Amino acid sequence: MMNNTRFLLATCFLLAALGFLLPLWPLSALGILIAGLSGRYLFAIAIGLLFDIAYGAPMGALHFVWFPFTLVALVAMLGSELAKRYLLGRTQSKTVY
Amino acid sequence: MTTISPSRRRGRRFGSPRVVAFFVLCAALFSIAALWREQLSSVLWSVATPVLNTRALPAVVFSSITAQFASKNALVAESNALRAALASSSILLLDRNLLYFENRDLKLRLGREANSPSILAAVLLAPPGVPYDTLFIDAGSSEGVVAGAPVFAGGSVIVGKVSHVYPHAARVVLLSAPGESYDALLKTQDGTVPLTVAGMGGGSLSGDVPSGTVVRVGDTVLFPGIEPSFAATVVSVTPTKSGSFLTLSMSLPVNLFGLQYVEVRQQTSL
């Protein structure tokens, strides 16, 4: 594991844990979002599931979402993939058609 | 082999073992979480409860070290303690009005004693620390808490009901949680009016009463029963567009952000 990855994972986990301990749940959501956007998908999803299990399902009109923190991770993952593909140009093919 | 076909290239990409493994792992994690959510939640809260209970310890230790050096800090702490005392006095004062009305009504009828035992619990997480207008308390099935039990902030001020019970923790859904609605009585100076209160989130509730009803800001909303349950206070009255009803905006009578202890009653009549 590279130092960069280690630092990023530690930061995201710290943010999420702080959000739980302070307590301030948007901080946890931010940790998950950063992990997802930076390409640590599995970590983001795992932390998202952990928070969803801890906090339970939402109340009211959003009760059907069921796993909102995991959804945040999935949205971040999708955003990261789309950004890589269409904005950052990292996956552009160098093959001449 | 190099290929120039976009479709083949895409196919190879999504079919790569790494991507497949990732999706399989995600699906497995999600299935485990969905199938055994309650059990996992129970395990998680068994671990989290002691951690959250010891959260205040460093603050206590640190404050005892610095107390002798900082008189200003002592004054701030005293001010905070007085504020907390004032808040609890406000609740007691609200209680007093409620008990006065209740007592007056009961004197007109035959008396009946109603006193159910309660379990004291500390609030581990409260809004805004936890989403969805819920509380997490440090009493669970081991302490005798059952799902559906009403939760009081102290005295007869009700704040919600227990929705999930873990061995040493429980999740409380506040009356103000979105999607929650209850049948209640609006206690005005002229009598009582039945109404349905609906949670709006963030400690606020709303309900409609017929337009002829005399409602004042500060009127109380109760849950019917021999044991009084003070649920909300009217904070504003707005006529609906058609004019047939009055929309009442209400708030929980306690400050959720400063709630430290609650009582879980063993009755299940909410």
How does this model look, in words?
The complex is a heterodimer of chains A (97) and B (270). Chain A has helices at residues 3-21, 25-37, 41-55, 68-88. Chain A has one domain. The mean pLDDT of chain A is 83. Chain A is built from four helices and no strands. Chain B has 270 residues and is an alpha+beta fold. Chain B has one domain. In chain B, the strands form two sheets. In chain B, strands 1-2-5-4-3-12 form a six-stranded antiparallel β-barrel. Chain B has a six-stranded antiparallel barrel with strand order 6-7-8-11-10-9. The relative contact order of chain B is 0.13. The model of chain B has no long low-confidence stretch (mean pLDDT 81). Classes of the chains: A mainly alpha (97), B alpha+beta (270). The interface between A and B is medium-sized, with 31 and 39 residues.
Any low-confidence stretches of chain A, pLDDT <50, length ≥5? none
Number of helices, where a helix is a run of at least 4 consecutive DSSP H or I residues of chain A? 4
Strand order, biggest sheet of chain B?
Answer: 1-2-5-4-3-12
The termini of chain B sit apart by 70 Å
Indicate the low-confidence ranges of chain B by residue numbers.
none
| Main sheet summary of chain A | none
Integer count of domains of chain B? 1
Structural class of chain A: mainly alpha
The rough form of chain A would be described as globular
**Could you tell me the radius of gyration of chain B in angstroms?**
25 Å
| Largest interface chains and counts | A-B, 31 and 39 residues
What is the helix/strand order of chain B?
HHHHHEEEEEEEEEEEE
Tell me the layout of helices and strands.
The complex is a heterodimer of chains A (97) and B (270).
Chain A: H1 3-21, H2 25-37, H3 41-55, H4 68-88
Chain B: H1 6-14, H2 17-35, H3 37-53, H4 57-66, H5 71-108, E1 118-125, E2 134-137, E3 150-154, E4 157-165, E5 170-174, E6 181-188, E7 191-201, E8 204-210, E9 220-223, E10 229-239, E11 245-251, E12 261-265
Antiparallel strand pairs in B: 1-2, 1-12, 2-5, 3-4, 3-12, 4-5, 6-7, 6-9, 7-8, 8-11, 9-10, 10-11
